[in-house]
Write a structure and sequence with these properties.
The complex is a heterodimer of chains A (186) and B (465). By secondary structure, chain A is an all-alpha fold. Chain A has 11 helices and no strands. Chain A is globular and about 50 Å long. Chain B has 10 helices and 26 strands. Classes of the chains: A mainly alpha (186), B alpha+beta (465).
Chain lengths: 186, 465
Amino acid sequence: MEDEKIVALYWQRSEDAIRETAKKYEAYLTKIARNILSDPEDCGECVNDTYLAAWNSMPEHRPGVLSTYLGKITRQISIDRFRKRNSAKRRGSEYALSLDELEDTFADGETPEQALDAKLLDAAIDGFVRSLPEEARRVFIGRYYFFDSVKTVAGYCGISEAKAKSILYRARLKLREHLEKEGFIL
Amino acid sequence: MKDSILDSMGRIDDDLIEEVDALRQLRRKSRARSRRIGWAAACLCLIAGGVFLWTRHVNNGGVISCGIGEAGNSGIVVSEDGVTIPETNVSLSANAAADMIAFFIYQGNCYVQYEWIYDADLVGEYLGTATGLIDEWTPKDGYVELAGSVRGPFYAVKGIDPGFMLCKKDETGAVSTYICDNGITLRTGSDLYEDRLHLSEQIAAVEAETRDSWYNSRNEVFRLDAGDEAVKAFITALDRAEFIPWEDVPAKEGMTSTSIYDTEIYHVYFRLENGMTVHLRLYENGYVRFQGLLSVCVQLPEESFSALIDALKNQNGTEFVSVPDRGEIMLEKCRNDPELGKYLPTFEVPGCSVLAAEARYYLDEETAAETGTKELYLEYTCAFNPELYYSVTVTWRDEYGQNGWAGPMLERSELSAEALAERMGTKQNGIVTLDVGVWYGDVSVVLSASGLDAEVAFEILNSVQ
């Protein structure tokens, strides 16, 4: 079913909306959840929570691209769940590895000033991502938005794994520089 | 902070996410193209899978459609004038299997990629610049002049009607040709093979391989004598034969229509003097298709067809043609590059070999001429240790922070095993990594390695002349 029709079902408060969403996007959303959570049961619950969140948000939202809309919900729900898990359950996911990668460039913890500047940080990150050359932008989003493995990212970007790692390394350093220039205390 | 960064990444604008998500879906479905195989091979896979593409256009208030569809739905019209590949209003669809076709729109027509050609002087007049911007999620109003799934300048092909074929050149110097079949009428083979491709007057070599070799990418290509009577008779018959829609080819008795693909027996490659290849697919009962126009075919008389098949059978397995290894050619280009080649390290880790090599050039947009070397890239793997690999990138200082390196750099005077050891990291699995560059005047040499110790890394970087 086309996205527009699925969204219309949500707006009509038809339960078919969830059935059709699951039919079309379950695999897609499960992949996003699986990159963040290593536990299959957790993944399934996060995807189900995504359907509920979609049901609660439409109306009033009318997303243009349903996959992106749902994917963002799944991503955040999965990250929230990741943070509640104990350290043993956190191991092994691509999200955990992404955090490790960022560890070298950015100190752990959060200062009160930064907490206040969350919206500024959003804007700074968005600006940074836009400033990256096309290839680097794709690799960066593939790794740090979708949490695809470096090998997977390299595969769909048509570059070697070594080059993808190299691009990510450069991008992290540039991000640090960018955030410092924007006044963030790192 | 790192958590906040990843949270903020989750709130970047949708257009950024959609761009990458489209790429993810596309690659997942196809699991094909890497830079080493190219679009043409990917198209072959799709075709082997039972899908063929056709391209049409319909100019409807500036909106153009390029179509891709299943066999049996091509809409080709047959008349006394021949077969006419019509204009249809079908757009690339996320539901279509053929979602990775490289194409662009020029003068209201769709040009679809046919082949990659290396080291050929084919590029003619500059005609325009494709904007990219189209994927299978693009709405119909996105199909406008110069849009397509590829971007960059495109050119006429020397000696070929630009209404039929155009070309592009990428930074590595490779030329890709694009064919347009929009609205063309073909009566006999000569309308295509002689009038448009100039086959007879340009044959440099004739090669072939079995369908099995082609399908499994075994490259068991053998050469025929271009002057052989069977080859000459085949071309004569090919030129005289009348085109019919491929979907009209009767299935083999007792088989379903989709199994017509199982009747394919040989692939024949006419290598032309201009560097192009006329790639033909031969099927039982004399049917022949041109790889660049798969929606139509001709049927040859049994005598001339069988004569060629016999010649192919006699040659098959006797002496295979050495297919040029693109990687080796690129490696030689890198090593002999007059500008940056001398900055490539001469030391190679024993047991390691070059997995990929790439030279990228600055191109003049108007002429596609290479005006200088932009970057050399070599990637090594080691058979004795799969965890060990490294790559070397050589580029100019001006590229620093652009597409080139923007990480830590050492002056050559600072280069030492100790300095490299300080910059090494460790992955979760305990394997050491190193990403560092060294300035050699205006040139940076960057080493990106995994599983390499500092002493060996030093030996590599210190071997730059």
